[in-house]
Amino acid sequence: MVTPGRGAPSARGLARVDPVLLVLVSIVSVQFGGALAATLLPLIGVVGSVTLRLGLSAALLLLVVRPRLRGRERADWAVVAAFAAALTCMNLAFYASLERLPIGVAVTIEFIGPLTLAAFTSRRGRDIAAVGGAVVGVLLISEALTVPWAELDLVGILMALLAGACWAGYILLSGRTGARFEGLDGMAICLTIGAVVLLPFGIWTAGTDLWSSEALLRGAGIALLSSAIPYSLELVALRRMAAGVFGVLLSLEPAAAALAGLLVLEQSLEALQLVGMALVVVASILVLGRPRTQVRD
């Protein structure tokens, strides 16, 4: 899986660092950014948190990228608007799942989206079988096989599944956006559209807390950890790394999320949940390790 949309200008010194190390640092950064987002949710809620993340990330990219707006065709704007819708909905659903589920559980369930898309796009029997194993893993990590359904947080699970579906949509639209917009122009415009659309709802739900010093500080940390740092590191790494290798490394995201949940949020998983996570990771390595193009913000 290749990530169009995770990229930004980087220092020359990064080009001398092992690309595998750069991607690993990027993955850890994204998941610790997610853990930090979980601490922002009680302050300004889901919509406020996503508004702050998109707004600060957009401001950063607009400053650095300065995308070209003139001379765009109507079809260009239609594609980037759909891209923004997928990205915004993905973040809203994922942050909603973080309110109810441990981050390691939410990320693992979310991963079903791009994994399923990659498997069915390849049409290989082994890949489809791997998705079946991943589904078993999701059932284990969500505790659907061990806990009565009345005690499960079905809303949280559904939100994580919705985030995964939006992630799959994001993958499909990222390629179309990349074909129409140079460099990071499409991502900068996408983030800006999402932030502008969400801003009234963010103000409505969070009020003046949206620009409190604590919210802005945490929001800036999320924008850096979840966007600026991984954008820069992965752009440099992907110039020297095969797509299949990147896919294998990306498959470690659920484990990184569990680590971030443990260290930042003091969230721990049961033994069967860890087995479920391992099944998803192995399935992801089998499917995403094949050369292909894709991924996400």
TrEMBL record:
<feature type="transmembrane region" description="Helical">
    <location>
        <begin position="215"/>
        <end position="233"/>
    </location>
</feature>
<keyword id="KW-0812">Transmembrane</keyword>
<feature type="transmembrane region" description="Helical">
    <location>
        <begin position="101"/>
        <end position="121"/>
    </location>
</feature>
<keyword id="KW-0472">Membrane</keyword>
<comment type="similarity">
    <text>Belongs to the EamA transporter family.</text>
</comment>
<dbReference type="Pfam" id="PF00892">
    <property type="entry name" value="EamA"/>
</dbReference>
<feature type="domain" description="EamA">
    <location>
        <begin position="155"/>
        <end position="288"/>
    </location>
</feature>
<feature type="transmembrane region" description="Helical">
    <location>
        <begin position="271"/>
        <end position="289"/>
    </location>
</feature>
<keyword id="KW-1133">Transmembrane helix</keyword>
<feature type="transmembrane region" description="Helical">
    <location>
        <begin position="155"/>
        <end position="173"/>
    </location>
</feature>
<dbReference type="GO" id="GO:0016020">
    <property type="term" value="C:membrane"/>
</dbReference>
<feature type="transmembrane region" description="Helical">
    <location>
        <begin position="77"/>
        <end position="95"/>
    </location>
</feature>
<dbReference type="InterPro" id="IPR000620">
    <property type="entry name" value="EamA_dom"/>
</dbReference>
<dbReference type="InterPro" id="IPR037185">
    <property type="entry name" value="EmrE-like"/>
</dbReference>
<feature type="transmembrane region" description="Helical">
    <location>
        <begin position="20"/>
        <end position="38"/>
    </location>
</feature>
<feature type="transmembrane region" description="Helical">
    <location>
        <begin position="245"/>
        <end position="265"/>
    </location>
</feature>
<feature type="transmembrane region" description="Helical">
    <location>
        <begin position="44"/>
        <end position="65"/>
    </location>
</feature>
<protein>
    <submittedName>
        <fullName>Inner membrane transporter RhtA</fullName>
    </submittedName>
</protein>
<dbReference type="InterPro" id="IPR050638">
    <property type="entry name" value="AA-Vitamin_Transporters"/>
</dbReference>
<feature type="transmembrane region" description="Helical">
    <location>
        <begin position="128"/>
        <end position="149"/>
    </location>
</feature>
<feature type="transmembrane region" description="Helical">
    <location>
        <begin position="185"/>
        <end position="203"/>
    </location>
</feature>
